[in-house]
Amino acid sequence: MEIDFSSKKLAKQCDTEKSRTKAFGQERAKRLGRRLTALVGATNLGDLKDVPGRLHALRGDRAGQLSFDLDGPHRLIFEPVTNPDNPVNCADPAEWSKITHIRLLGIEDTHE
Questions:
Q1: What is the reported pTM?
Q2: What is the per-residue DSSP string for 8-62?
Q3: CA 10-14-16 angle, 5° bins
Q4: pLDDT tens-digit series, residues 3-59
Q5: Distance of CA 48 to the CA centre of its chain
Q6: Which of 36, 41, 52, 84 has the fewest CB atoms within 10 Å, i.e. is most exposed?
Q7: What is the dihedral of CA 41, 42, 47, 49, to 10 degrees?
Q8: Residue 69: helix, strand or coil by DSSP?
């Protein structure tokens, strides 16, 4: 899967185990590393429907975004990068196989 970052800062924080640990702490960095490895290794998002980490679509003002659980309330938030002429419904896991390019938006507590 192709992965973009919403900012250079986020790309740098996610780049290595050391930078992830410095930015997010040891436990969150370990889980983030696993999620990034899974995303890079997938052909499309549909490949990840049943992997540990509860991949799920967000709702409300975050509709169109997806998240992977990290630790506690913290999530890896991302959105699909798709052709505007052929949008994908992120809320429908049956359409996840159409998503081959994503943009990481951040690591945050979505419950705040």
A1: 0.92
A2: HHHHHHHSSHHHHHHHH-HHHHHHHHHHHHHHHH-SSGGGGTTSTT--EE--GGG
A3: 140
A4: 999 999 999 999 999 999 999 999 999 999 999 999 999 999 999 988 888 899 999
A5: 11
A6: 84
A7: 70
A8: strand
